[in-house]
Design goal:
Elements (H helix, E strand, L loop, with lengths): L11 H16 L5 H13 L3 H7 L8 H4 L2 H7 L11 H27 L8 H25 L4
Amino acid sequence: MSDPVPSIRTSDVERDRVAQLLQEHFAQGRLDHEEFTDRLGRVYKARTAGELATVTGDLPERDLADVRGAASRQEEFAVAPPISLRDPALMVPWALYLGVNVLCFVIWLILFLTTDHDYPWFLWVMGPWGIVMGVVTMGVLPGRRNSSGEE
């Protein structure tokens, strides 16, 4: 597609596109605040495509970081290491589960030994929470096995 003729009148859409381009260059540090506001004013006052072209004439059309190549982009994406049973993401919730349930059991045991209350209410804490923890752990482990190549 050819460049627009400099004497052709410009539309609001084209002005907005150039204004957005200026905002990107300002965000990347190519323009200071004063220069940005001056150029932005000139963009919205521009009547022809030539006037718009002079506003962005000294700025690159593409980000120079994109020109470096795709090899550097591939290095940015890292694969997460597979999770194991000793991973803190699993160890911390299980340690919390164990600690809370030991505390509940000790409280129940004290009440059982000192009073006539013998209903094992601590099971209502241990049971549902244990089921949820087991389901979460089993859901995480197959992902670990598949990513490490085991079947």
